[in-house]
Sequence to fold (318 residues):
Amino acid sequence: MTHRIFGLLTLFALLAIPVASARQSAALVTDISGDVRVARASGGASQAATWGMQLNVGDRVTSASGARASLLYSATNSIVTVASGATHEVGSAADGAGASRPAGAPRIAAVSELTLARAGAGEVSALGGLRAGEREQAIVNLTPRQTRIRQGRPTFAWMASEEFEGYRVRLYDAAGREVWTGAATGSERVYPDDAPALVAGSQYVWNVEGETMLDAVSSQLTPFEVLSDEEETIVAEGLGGISDAMAGAADETTRDYLLGAFYVDHGLLFDAVDAFSRIARRHPDAALVHEILGNLYYDLGLKDEAVAALKRALAARN
Fold:
């Protein structure tokens, strides 16, 4: 277990130097189509733009004929599209480069917030903690875990390394009182409509029992928190703003970056994983997205996934 924790921290350390420069960047490349080049203000030969490339004031982004790029300015929370055949100098007005539009959400997490290692997610992680050796257990809770969720009916999902005849999911409130229990035959169970409604702003823990004829094996208790009514309203409005801002836009990875960063800012970590995973599938060689996913998995206590993602980030940087 000690070796695994040391290895994970070593990966974070190896990725720390690029993060430092990310804190000082003015814009981020969030979508690319075709041949897009970046000429650094510091000089040197131009280089091909890549998803997640950090841009500084004075850098020049040029889209060849038929190409385009989207740049996200975090300071102004706006998106600049560098249209086909256009050049945009970072820090200048968007005139001549293409459309400039607001990102939609009132605030999204900055790149430095997405890539810096975090120890947990506030009170939620205090309930459950991070367990490096959890994968050695027969049943591991996958979702929801050490995250906040939106109001409604969550789906409980887990992974089993042994064969069981059936499962039983148990949900408890923060005081340890059983709220609901339900049987399952597969590896997930939707919280049913006839179960007690989850209380807004409340914390819960849950586990799964794998049942055999002679015995039952339990997973560890895993925490999550339901958004408060106020936070639910803020999230709904923010998602609506992103949807409106990106309506009709072709840059899907920009949309997913905005969604992922917005989810992180509100503690909706599994929603963020979904958004950044879509980017990783479109841009598998982009180091930044794997680094972000590694940090998210670390926050969620999924150490194996964190190590795998951070190794992909290191491979992409080399």
Q: What stands out?
A: Residues 58 and 264 are 30 Å apart (CA to CA). The longest helix spans residues 229-245. The longest strand covers residues 203-211.
